[in-house]
Structure formats: C-alpha cells, structure tokens
Amino acid sequence: MSSNKQHCNSYEWRGFMLDCVRHFMPISFIKEILDQMARLKLNRFHWHLTDDQGWRLPIKARPLLIEKASTRIDGDHFIGGFYTEEQIRDLVKYAEARDIVIVPEIDIPGHVCAALHAYPSLSCPGHETRIPNTWGIFEDVLCAGSGETAIFLNDVFETVLDLFPSPWIHIGGDEVKDDRWKNCPKCQKVISDNNYPSERSLYSHILSPICQLIRSHGRSVIGWDEMLESCPQEDIIIMSWRGEEGAIEASKQGKKSILCPHEYFYLDYPESKDDPIPGADWMPTLSVEKMKTYEVPKIEGILGLQSNLWTEELLGPKEARHRIFPRLETLAKKCHQKTSPQLKTSEKVN
Ligand code: ACM
Ligand code: ZN
Q1: Ligand 1, pocket-test mutation among 137, 174, 258, most atoms within 8 A of CB
Q2: Which of 15, 96, 169, 265 has the smallest number of Cβ neighbours within 10 A?
C-alpha cells in the first residue's frame, strides 16, 4: 500500500465527512470509502455519528441511546442501526493502517432529538421527544438547566475519548435554536444565577466543560463555524461550512480552520439539473467543473479542505457512492495543490 503521509504541497487536513445518521451506512461501505480515501491520499474521515434522527454510538453508561435512539419508525418500518465497540475499534485500526484518522462527531447542543427521546430529562420540557422522520432544524436542544445534561455529556465524551485515539474530537455546534431555552424556567435560572447577557451564553455553558474535558486528554476540539459566535472564547478549530466567512473570522481570532463551504464541497448536492434529488429541489448543483474553480482564500490558519456527504436523501451505499464519485477525486486534487500563504517559499515545488 503506498504511503498516505503528507506531501509538501498537500494540505495537512484532507477530509471527507459521512453522515451515518440520517441513513445508516454499514461498516463494509465505510471500509470501502476508507480504501478509496487512501487511494486518493485523503487522511481524515469525519464520522457524523449522532443527530436528530438517530444515535449510532454505544455508550455503556447510557444503554437507552442504542435501545431507544438508534432506530426511528417510518410508517411500518424501522430505520436505523448502530455500531458496536468492537466494530469501531476495528475500523479505527483499519483507517490507521491507511494513514487515515477517524474523527468522531457528537453533535451538541442541538441536533439531539434522538438523545432526548431516550433520555427526556435532558430536554427543557422534560417529556419524551419524538425521533423525527423529517429533516431540518428542530427546536429541541439540550437543557442547560437540567442537572442531567453535564453528567450525560461526561458519560458520552469519556467513551468517545476511549474509543477514538484521534487527536481531534468534533462537538458539532451547528444550527441551534434558542426558543426552548427562552421558555424554560431551569435555563432562565442559569442565566440569572450567572448574570449571562442572553440565551446565547447557554451554548458555552453546556459546551465549555466538554471542551475542557477533551483538552485535558491532550486532544483538540473541532466545531462547525457557528461556534465562533456562540463560544468565541474557546480555542477550537473551525469547520467553515456556511461559506468562507468562518475561516476568515477564525483567522482574525488566531484560530485554525478547515474549509468546507457548502456551495463547493457538499457532495449531497446534485452534480447537474439532470440528476435531481426527489424532495430536495432547494439544493444548488455542484459540478466537478465548479469544484475545480474553487480558490482557497489567502489567509492564515487553514489546515485544509473537506467534502461532506449528508444523507437525508440517500438511502444507502448505492446512492451515497453515486454522489461521492467522481467528486471525491476533485476534492483530492484540490487537497494536493496547497497555495500560499500555507506554502512556504522553501517548500515550493519546481
Ligand atoms: C451543516 O451542514 N449543518 C454543518
Ligand atoms: Zn432548559
């Protein structure tokens, strides 16, 4: 197997994210993708493991996450699945043998309906939340005033740190609504007890202890670009997805970033108007030609590039493969064409 180590004109971060929640993807398919990533010398597999529609990661101290939150009911069928600890440890080794790091993502404090379904005491209303069969941004979030939230997150992230040797742990942080916090007496009490200026501070009230836990294990925290606004004081790597603004702001704040602006890097977008996705008319198209035109902004702190595949409209490996290729190859080419200011004069080729 040829080495997948960094070359002088490649970015340090050459990533691909697979959403295994909206539709479950079997381990055999993930191994196939890791093989393809190794062929293309991509080196970070970002594994999106939790979301509103399901929870795929076993946490011994929280068995209901698998018993109740790993499947959803659509009509008369069950949709879902989960990975065992053994499968995860084996996959981590499989990736390591290909010089790929598996970077797990546990998305908090929003995108948690499935977890709230299993453990209602984590939610503001305190009653059971339905696991949705639809997509979007839901109101349900972790309750900052529930004594259970911090204990739950500790259980989850201790397991994540044990299962994944990755130097980076992704904690999500995208698309969080404030409405539940505004209407929750427990959350309002946290705001007044701490003299917080607004509900936005609850975001860091929940996330900062987890950032500290991750750092105390010598690992770094990654979050989606919303975290620049919600947890500006945290030293995290920003994944800039809503555009390049996240990376630009991160650079101003002296933070590192990974670029995955959706209009150039989201592989769930159809390649052309001839390949429409039923139910997703809002999606822009993303052709190979368009990806090729992407120019990395000339700012400090960019670790690299990543493509993401969200699977709301993709039922399984067959549909996912159709979206991933050939555009993953285009991503890889971009990842191996590092531009200034990341490329030092002494490193320049020819
Ligand atoms: C995202 O696409 N919500 C990160
Ligand atoms: Zn609350």
Answers
A1: 174
A2: 96
